[in-house]
Amino acid sequence: MTVLLVFVAIYAAVVLGLELSNTMLFVWPEAFGLMILTPWVWWLHVAGGSGLGRIRGVVALWTRLALIGLFVMLLAEPRAVRTSDVVAVMYTVDISDSVGRETDDENPQDQALQFVASTMSKKPEGDQAGLVVFGRNSAVELPPAEVTPLEDGILLNSLIDRDATNLEQSLSLAAAMLPAENRGRIVLISDGTETAGDLRGILEELKSREIAVDVMPITYSYESEVWVEQLELPRNVKLGEPYEADVVISSLQGGSGKLVLKENDRPIAERDITFPAGKSRYTFPIFLRSSGYYEYSATVVVDQGDDSWKENNTVLNYLFVEGEGKVLVVTDPRGNPADHESLVRAIRENQRSVDVQNAYEFPRDALSLMSYDLVIFVNVGVEAFDVVQMGALKDSVENLGIGFLMVGGPNSFGPGGYRKTVIEEILPVEMDITKKKV
Predict the structure, then answer these.
(1) Is 412 left (phi over 0), alpha (psi -120 to 50) or beta?
(2) Per-residue pLDDT tens for 333-370?
């Protein structure tokens, strides 16, 4: 028993010493629970009687216990720990539209980049620094390095979508760029307006990885600012009935300007307005004479001195007016008109509206097909369509509930053709010969 107690004490001291001295860490410490087997090994030694002398028996027991301890230590997944005094700092700078606003002094984005350039040039020798810029997406502008040439300042080369702010993605990318062998820090420079991602989740992950995050907030204030907050359209509109579009405008102070309403990028209403500070609502009556998909935009136009940021002066909304069900017949531009004429005549005799288009005129987006209940391909070969057109049809069938019918013929059902295309995916048949007769 003395041998077992001495071994357990020495083994525990070695494991704890490695862990506490940061020489080694164990990824799965639960594996050490298997050391409960050591009393059983000791009991086999005592009760079994190996026939060895006393000294040789003790050596054999120690060897067995050491092998078990080593095996358990390997199961715990040991990792060597390398300590370093080098600090790696990744700056993450928000360059979304909400930060890129002009102030009386300077653009906040330029100020943030100047701050990064200044602190990078003053960092201690041997430390590393890098830069991530972000908006909706993130990109590495400068990888972490000891030397960063910033004589001409920071010139951004990354393509960033600036219409949103994803703090989670920026912090995740910055953390991924930090060298594992160095102590890491992240400096987040942003106005904190998160429109995408899950900031709380990434912060918990960085905390578990012991990566500190310092925040430098970007603040700005404006005495004059006008923006379109909302364009309200009714959910259900019947063909031939008038309806109303409501535009909500917000302003920090009272003023005057012009409100323009467009339908499918065509101005349909324009009104001179005088608005107070706060929210104002303006109503436009609209009358639609045909079914289909409509895009509306509301834009407020004011003098430059009464507005600080023009990018928020327009809001879009969409409306679909459902009319009588229509059928779209798609023909081959080089085909025979007789292929589709009898079909079109039969549909019209059943009092259904039919539009006839050749394949070259087929829409390239699913929304343009929303006014149709059914799309029919009449003996049209695959070469008449491009990938975008076929993708639009697949999207409209799967997501918008539009029917699809393919009328056969040498062009549409010929060998090869639509095989392994998205059109084959939405058809109930396969465009391949699975069985051949000899």
Answers:
(1) alpha
(2) 887 888 888 888 888 888 788 899 988 999 998 888 88
pTM above 0.70, yes or no: no
Domains and their CATH numbers in the chain: 2-80 (no CATH), 87-217 (3.40.50.410), 226-321 (2.60.40.10), 326-426 (3.40.50)
Q: Is the dihedral of CA 281, 287, 291, 294 positive or negative?
A: negative
Can you tell me the distance from the alpha carbon of 22 to that of 407, in angstroms, rounded to the nearest whole number?
A: 73
Cα–Cα–Cα angle for 106, 110, 112, rounded to 5 degrees: 110
- Identify whether the C-beta of residue 252 lies closer than 8 Å to the C-beta of residue 301: no
Write the pLDDT tens digit of every residue in 111-136. 778 888 888 887 888 888 888 888 88
Question: Strands 242-251, 278-287: parallel, antiparallel or unpaired by DSSP?
Answer: antiparallel
Contacts of 102 (CB under 8 A, 6+ apart): 308, 309
pLDDT band at 410 (very low <50, low <70, confident <90, very high): confident
User: How many CB atoms lie under 10 A from the CB of residue 140?
Assistant: 16
Count of CB atoms situated within 10 Å of the CB of 12: 13
